[in-house]
């Protein structure tokens, strides 16, 4: 038993404490991080190498305000943070990256497809890690668009990329107009 009683007595409070921590505004820190508000209307991604850390307050709300298929939020020298909204009956598109990709499903349901045949259902709160060289796709399997936060390591897209649709993204990639910045290490 600790000073404040048995730890089990605090378990019912943990969800409320976690919610309060997520809703807290961390703008007033000694390190003066770059902090973004909860609206996409005044958002501008960094297009130069970042200095210091960045905080996105209430990511799920920020992401839900973006109706774009793909939007780069942050690009670092070794990774990139992107949000995606997969439309009803839509998909991310079958692809193979030369970088690792970590996908965190914030809302909606999808079907993860590995190698063109192996399927697994994914739901809000699920994380899927796709190693470089793995053929993959994610298809919307519900009535609402899945919203996905994804990290590419290293960067995969231009630092200020915004794609309205899968087709637009594929076209720009094919034309070589969606390349990561030269300062993002790891790209050949």
Task: Describe what you observe in this structure.
This protein has helices at 14-23, 59-64, 166-174; strands at residues 34-36, 54-56, 70-75, 80-85, 100-107, 110-114, 118-122, 127-130, 136-140, 147-153, 162-163. It has 188 residues and is of the alpha+beta class. The strands form three sheets. Strands 8-5-10-4-3-11 form a six-stranded antiparallel β-sheet. β6 and β7 (118-122) form a beta hairpin. The longest helix is centred in the N-terminal third of the chain and has 10 residues, at 14-23. It starts with 13 loop residues before the first helix and ends in a 14-residue tail after the last helix.
Keywords:
single chain, 188 residues, alpha+beta, six-stranded antiparallel sheet, three-stranded antiparallel sheet, 3 helices, 11 strands, disordered N terminus
Strand order within the widest beta sheet: 8-5-10-4-3-11
Give the averaged pLDDT, no decimals.
Answer: 82
Count of DSSP helices? 3
Residue share in helices? 10-25%
Structural class assignment: alpha+beta
| Proportion of residues in extended strands | 25-35%
Give the H and E element order: HEEHEEEEEEEEEH
The largest β sheet comes out as: 6 strands, antiparallel
Distance between the termini: 56 Å
- Gross geometry: globular
Which segments are poorly predicted (pLDDT under 50) over 5 or more consecutive residues? Answer: 1-11, 16-32
Report the radius of gyration as a whole number of Å. Answer: 18 Å
Q: State the total count of DSSP E strands.
A: 11
């Amino acid at each position: 038993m600790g000073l404040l009683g048995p730890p089990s007595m605090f378990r019912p409070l943990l969800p409320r404490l976690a919610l309060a921590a997520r809703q807290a505004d961390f703008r007033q820190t000694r390190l003066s991080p770059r902090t973004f508000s909860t609206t996409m209307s005044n958002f501008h991604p960094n297009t130069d190498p970042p200095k210091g850390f960045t905080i996105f307050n209430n990511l799920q709300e920020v992401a839900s305000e973006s109706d774009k298929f793909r939007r780069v939020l942050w690009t670092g020298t070794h990774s990139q943070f992107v949000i995606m909204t997969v439309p009803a009956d839509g998909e991310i598109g079958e692809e193979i990256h030369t970088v690792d990709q970590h996908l965190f499903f914030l809302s909606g349901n999808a079907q993860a497809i590995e190698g063109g045949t192996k399927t697994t259902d994914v739901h809000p709160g699920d994380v899927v890690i796709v190693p470089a060289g793995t053929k993959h796709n994610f298809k919307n399997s519900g009535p609402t668009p899945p919203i996905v936060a994804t990290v590419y390591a290293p960067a995969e897209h231009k630092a200020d990329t915004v794609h309205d649709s899968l087709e637009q993204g594929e076209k720009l990639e094919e034309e070589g107009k969606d390349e990561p910045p030269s300062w993002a290490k790891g790209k050949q």
